[in-house]
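Hey, I'm writing a tutorial for new members on how sequence and structure tokens pair up, and I'd like a real worked example in the thread rather than a made-up one. If someone can provide the structure for the chain below, I'll link this post from the tutorial.
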Amino acid sequence: MDLKTTFMKHSNISVGLDIGTTKIVAMVGDKNEFGKVEILGIGKSKSLGVHRGVVNNITQTIQSIQQAIEEAKVVSGKEIDEVVVGIAGQHIRSLQHSDYITRTNSQEVISQEDVERLIQQVYKLVMLPGEEIIHVLPQDYKVDGQAEIKEPIGMYGGRLEANFHVVVGQVTSIKNIGRCVKSAGLSMGNITLEPLASSEAVLSQEEKEAGVALIDIGGGTTDLAIFKDGIIRHTAVIPYGGNVITEDIKEGCSIIEKQAELLKVKFGSAWPGENRDSEIVSIPGLRGREPKEISLKTLSKIINARVVEIMEQVYLEIKNYGHDDQKKKLIGGVVLTGGGSQLRHLKQLVEYITGMDTRIGYPSEHLAGDTQKSETSPILSTAVGLLMNALEHQVKKDFESVPSDEGEITDDTIADNTSDVLESNPMSSKRKSILDRWVEKFKEFLDNA
């Protein structure tokens, strides 16, 4: 059997687990012969123990995870034991950091080990109490003062310097997610930042090169990821999402939450000018009380006020990244995804606030052609991204487990089989190995706990 066949015939399928504020999604999938993601089954459950992306009730979260996993097992007809989990929440923050190493022998070329030594040095940064580094993402390198180097390996130099994008999160929140996954009878294959997963699913390589801001509007949080020149430049998590809009409707119209959510989904609009004063919707009263009449103009004014507030915070983050600077301009504009992106006229409102081209991002680019329409909804963007990450992880494991007597592994063979992984990010192979080590340490910690 040649190496290519070993890659295609996975020993088992891959699973992405999206633990959100409103829902938990388990997505089971595999890659077809064309290298596209084939979804074999989806399990969903209402998320009861998560608030703004952070677990606040362990028992309920475990039950919700088990429910989603059971449904995914039934639909796909596959056994599930390992999952790739996404992490988000208001505790996530990011920072820019520069670091350098001095090499002992400048007559030798810079190797992979030198780059890893530099990255490992960043992992030792002293964080605030209770915080831990989740991702260290290199931006660009400097070799002996020569700037803007994307790939330093193979060059001569004594001093290797780099700018990093460091993503930090609360240790306790990460441990709680790990505990829930473990208690639900699953093992954690990998952990990744949710905005990064969503961006893998909905953004094209051209957009990442040109410069793009991905805004993922979830139930509890709005996640932002900014790319430029194919590299992630900025991430942020804003602690407001679709649930806050529902809460506002509930308070403003004096109705129950279930009715507020229905109103938002069926009649909600982010642009008040669209509705006439005469448009009214009637809501049944509680226990024989008189029905309530609500003006759609009032409804869209309530929604508009909150959406403007969220988008202004997002735009502030985009400006903090330096969008106004000609060199850092995001030519690709804005891509909206997540459940909140389905709000009517949101695209027009975002264009009005930011002055940037906007589109709705659907996770269909990497999916097989016969995928059902319901599976390419923006609601599932993060789950698709996590599934892609799980498949990448699986390919890597299969590659590592190939027996040495399979023949010589050439660069061409590796390029054929892991082109997806490396195409999306030329540095991903380096980053993966470091993140893998972090996951190993984290798993070890959970086992001891």
